[in-house]
Amino acid sequence: MAIASIMLVDDEIPFVEAMTKRLTRRELEVESAFSGEEALKKLTAGSKTEVVILDVKMPGMDGIETLKAIKSKVPLVEVIMLTGHATVESAIEGMRFGAFDYLMKPCDMDHLIDKVSAAAARKREHEEKIINARIKEITSRKP
Q1: Of 87, 81, 117, 2, which Cα lies nearest the Cα of 48?
Q2: Second label for 59, Cα 20 to 30 Å away, from 77, 125, 131, 136?
Q3: Per-residue pLDDT averaged across 66-71, rounded?
Q4: Contact 111, 80 (CB under 8 A)
Q5: For residue range 8-36, what is the model confidence (pLDDT) as tens digits?
Q6: Alpha-carbon distances of 105 from 53, 96, 126, rounded to whole Å
């Protein structure tokens, strides 16, 4: 079984291809998207993605806009922002809009895997709480 199901979102095709190979070897299921728009389309079409690794700087819909849309449409999906152009302001903004974490390119692969594992665990925990709340609601109804 895979450690997590992730989506890698970056406009740099060679980066996505190289990262996909590296992450797949590390027992992650990887889906890729080359724009924020493509990522949203896949996420809202029933993707089983648990964690999105999202580039901040992309043409069109940038990473922050994509993060806001992901959190609006599929709020349980965790997002790790990844950038080669980090500023304190963009990191704070990403965290404010619900990013799980914010990492610099290039990042250590073991560190990224640790963050992905933690983010996937948080998503699963939230899903479990929702299921338990629904079960409790159903079983506490009076006939």
Answers
A1: 2
A2: 77
A3: 95
A4: no
A5: 999 999 999 999 999 999 989 999 999 99
A6: 12, 21, 29
